[in-house]
Amino acid sequence: MPLIVMCGYPCSGKTRRAEELKAHFEDTTDRQVHTVGDGALGVDRNRVYADSQQEKDARASLKAEVERKVNKDNIVILDSLNYIKGYRYELFCLTKHAQTPHCLVHCLTSGEDSSSWNKNREAAEQYSQNIFEALVQRFEAPDSRNRWDSPLFTVLKDDILPLEAISDALFKRKAPPPNQSTQSQPLSSTNFLYELDKITQDVLMAIFNAQKTSVPGDLISVPGATEKVELTRIVNMAELRKLRRQFICYSKMHPTENTGQISNMVTAVPKIRSQWLKKGA
Prior knowledge:
- By secondary structure, the protein is of the alpha/beta class.
- Helix content is 46%, strand content 13%.
- The protein is built from 11 helices and 8 strands.
- Helix 8 (192-210) packs antiparallel against helix 9.
């Protein structure tokens, strides 16, 4: 079910707000509410945020845990910094794939307030000053004009959390429609990838070898295709391989039940044909 992404400086009140949201939805709905965050994964903040690779791995673990828990019945709250806009976009794509709404709750505080709250924590829970300042400097503030940051609820430290508005954004709004980049397409047959790889390789080699004895403008027979093609220029092997990879990616998103038509598809896809193939009579 819906995903709530918390966002803000270190020690900006995100966990407190996440607990408020969890309590509210547990009281007002019969859905399970899962909180995913640094604490649940046992992340050592100062060690992880001091190393870019460890931080990247930690974000990947959080995203994987969210992906496991997001379904039609649950509410998932991601309680972490989520300070990188590219990462928030990845989470948005995840909700599109799951076809569920999401929203962003930005706990907006000043660096001075967050720093003060950090120093008042128990020593084991504190960010070191260097790590704290680096995270504040790297923070990429959300922008409601970006679809991955919308709907956006900005909450100041003394504000009352707009629980009803957040609830309406999650339950009274349609889920974002999936698109080709977020929706997996089932392959039409178990041997489709094998046939696709073999046939496109045969087509590639036929075109490459034909160029050795032909000139631009000659008609070339493509194995399995009903029409010949005309190359308007010489195409080297590196470019042929690149275009073959493009066609394979296209075919995975538009699988066919009839693998015998793959050769014809090579000459019919406009994006590929416009770059290097011209259909001949």
